[in-house]
Amino acid sequence: MSKGYWIATYIDIKDPAKLEAYAAMALPAITGAGGTFLARGMPDTVHEAAQNTRTVVIEFESLAAAKAAYQSPAYQEALAVLGDGAVRDIRLIDGT
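-> structure tokens emitted (96 positions)
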């Protein structure tokens, strides 16, 4: 079975306090669902579209596990706390 990946890019952070509260709840929700953070932060170098946005890459045992983590009650609670605090693009990708 191939791994699943959750890739998040932060297009605009509108409320850093909401983002901080979200992160405090999202971290245990994601790791508790089997997610392993592979990379997170601002890019060192950007090419082509050159969008300098915070990016997070999380690995799961499968795409189904990544989907289950996103849909879990614990993560949905974290999302509710984030609310309109950030504009993000979340992609769940099969590692094949």
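The radius of gyration is 13 Å.
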